Amino acid sequence: MRHRLLIPGALAAASLLLAVPASAAEPTPGAPGAGDPYYPEYGNGGYDVSHYDLRLKYQPKTDELAGTATLLVTATQDLSRFNLDFALDVGSIRVNGEEARFTTSGAHEVEVTPAKPLAAGEKATVVVRYSGVPSKVEVNGFTSWMRTPDGGVAANEPEAAWWWFPSNDHPKDKASYDVSVAVPDGTQVISNGTLQSQRSRAGWTRWNWRSRAPQATYLSTLAIGKFDITEDTTSSGLPVVNAYSKDLGEHEGAARASLERTGEITEWLERYFGPYPFDALGGYVPNTDTTYALETQTRPFYSPDDFADGSNTSVVVHEMAHQWYGDSVSLKGWKDIWINEGFARYSQWLWSEDQGEETAQELADYAYASHKADDDFWKVAPGDPGPDNQFHAAVYDRGAMAVQALRNTVGDRAFFTILKGWPSEHAGGNADVDDFIAYAEKVSGKRLGTLFQEWLFQPSKPKAPARAGFSA
Ligand code: ARG
Ligand code: ZN
Q1: In the predicted model, what is the mean pLDDT of the chain?
Q2: Hey, which end of the chain has fewer CB within 10 Å, N or C?
Q3: Interhelix angle for 313-324 vs 252-259, to 10°?
C-alpha cells in the first residue's frame, strides 16, 4: 500500500498528524476555581495574570464606579474559555482586541469565550468594560465595599476584589497594578504603592497609583473620600504616604499618633525580618467602622475603631509585619492563614517586649492560661482552621503560642535565623505550612513534626505551656 502515500490527500493527512502530536488535545475551558478546598470557586484555572491596569471613574454622590480593566494574562493550557471573578456589570470584553462572548454565572463568575482559543503559553490582553454601584452588590449576603459619607472603600479578606475589578481572585496568582481613578475635584483616592501623578481636568481629578511588586488580589485596595494625606520619607528613602479621613472626629489624634510611627515601626521590623520588601509604605484610616484592620499591600487599611482608646502602635506592627508574612510571602491556600496571622501576632508580642511592656514569653503564658482545657478555643487548629474559623482568635493567639514554642524548642539563634530567612526564601512568592515546617527543620537541624502537630493541628490544648520543657 506504499503507493497510497503519493496521493496528495493522504500526504496532507500524514503531515497534519506529524504537526499535531497525538497528545495535543482540543483547547479546553479553564477551571472555574483555583482549587482551594476552603473556597472552591475563588480564583480560576487556565491562565495567570501578570498585570492589572484599572482605569476608573467614581462618583461619591451615587457610588457609581465605571471604567476599564486591562489584564495581561498568560494561558497555562490550550484554553477555549476562562472565568474571571467579578460581581459588577460587564459591558463588553475583548481578548487580544477581538470581542469575546461572555456570560455571568453565580454571583461572582464571568465566563469568557475568546473569538480564538488561546494556546498554552500565549500572552493575551483581556479588556473588560464595566460599571456598577458596588455597595448595592451582595455576594453570599454581604458586600466588602464599604460606603462612607464621602465615598467608599474596598478592603476585606478573602473577598474584596470582585466589588471593584475583575480578577483571578486567589493569592496564588499575584500581579503588579496600575490603579487610576478619576473623582470630583476635592476628593482623594488612595490605593497601593506610589502615587505616580494626579491631574485635574474639567472638574475631575485623576489619581494614578502604581504597585510594582507581585500583589495578591485581596491585598489590593481602593479608598475614595475626603482624606488628609501626609507624605514623608524613611531614612532609607522610601515614600511614606498616610491618609486620614477628614471626618475621624475624636479618633483623629490617636490615629495620627499611631500611623505616623509606621516608618519607625517598619525599620524596627526590618531587624527581625530583613529588608522591607516594597518600594512604598504607609496606612490609611477611612471614616468607616469595621471590626478588622487589613494588611493591604504597602498601605494597610485601619478602622477608626482601632484608635478608640488612644494610640495603637500594636495594630501598626501587626499590619506592617504582614508586609513580609502574608504580602511578600503569600499563602498557597487559605488553609495556610497561620503563616500570616501567627507571625503578625507574634510581632506584636516582640514589640510589647521592646516597648518595656510584657515580654513575648509572658504574653504566650498569659494566652495559654486564659483558655481552660475545655474551652472551644483549643478545638480550632491554627494549621488548618477551616473556612469558618479562618480569623478565629486561635489562629492568632494559639498561632503565636506556636511561634513561641518553636523559639523555645530551637533556641533564639536558630529561631531568629528562621524569622529573617523565611521572607527572603519565598520573597514575592507563595508558600504553605508544610513549606514552613520543612524550612524550620532545615535551619534548626531538628525534627519539628511533633511540636507543630501539637501546636498547629491537635484539636485540644497542648499539654506543655509554651515554655516548660521547651527551653533550648
Ligand atoms: N488579616 C486581617 C488582620 O490581620 C484580618 C482580616 C479579617 N477579616 C475579616 N473579614 N474578619 O487583621
Ligand atoms: Zn493579621
Answers
A1: 94
A2: N
A3: 40
